[in-house]
């Protein structure tokens, strides 16, 4: 099961929810789906996509390579093909460091509030 930001257990996400998670257009997700075999949401007969956690993890990895590291789609595809485990591990480390940074900044803000004279 997936634990999303709202702390609700959820197995499937709509394309609009996933697009909002990554701040990308839905068309970007559909394009990445064609470009990367790792992204394969379930589709209904009418073509409505349902993304599982595995799809979201793959999108997070593609997002990291393309949007954060500035790789081309071809470069990202090649990196995932040649060295998927190292690429995944690197993205996980970067993601964890971002979380730690957010936590430290929140702590800094809390200390500044405590230090402010009343």
TrEMBL record:
Domain of life: Bacteria
Entry annotated with the keyword Transmembrane helix: no
Keywords: DNA-binding
Gene3D superfamilies, per the entry: 1.10.1660.10
InterPro entries assigned: DNA-bd_dom_put_sf (IPR009061), MerR-type_HTH_dom (IPR000551), MerR_fam (IPR047057)
Residue stretches making up the HTH merR-type domain: 12-82
PROSITE patterns: HTH_MERR_2
Protein name: MerR family transcriptional regulator
Organism: Parabacteroides acidifaciens
